[in-house]
């Protein structure tokens, strides 16, 4: 699969959405609690996939002090 980081993020999102949805109804609440046990595994897998396969497409910082992409260097003041 070419975009393993995006796939992992989507699977984790759907998993957590299903978990939250199952907790809303009395009939499926027990199954929701079972999904709670797998949540750390899904989140660790997603984080690992993003860190391993994800790529940063922004500019390199080099010798710059600030890495803000939404503001120009001149508008940043000293903190």
Features:
single chain; mainly alpha; elongated
Task: Explain what this protein looks like in three dimensions.
With 79 residues, the protein is mostly helical. The chain has a domain at 4-53. The protein has two helices and no strands. Helix 1 runs antiparallel to helix 2. The mean pLDDT is 85.
Query: Helical segment tally?
Result: 2
Unreliable spans are none
Mean pLDDT: 85
Span from first to last CA?
44 Å
Shape call: elongated
Q: Which secondary-structure class do the elements indicate? A: mainly alpha
Question: Helicity level, as a percent range?
Answer: 55-70%
Summarize the biggest pleated sheet: none
Q: Would you report the number of β strands? A: 0
Our Rg estimate from Cα atoms comes to 19 Å
Q: SSE order, as H and E? A: HH
Which percent range describes the beta-strand content?
A: under 5%
What's the topology here?
Layout: H1 4-22, H2 29-53
Helix pairs in contact: 1-2
In short, what is this structure?
This protein has 79 residues and is mostly helical. It has helices spanning 4-22, 29-53. The protein is 56% helix and 0% strand.
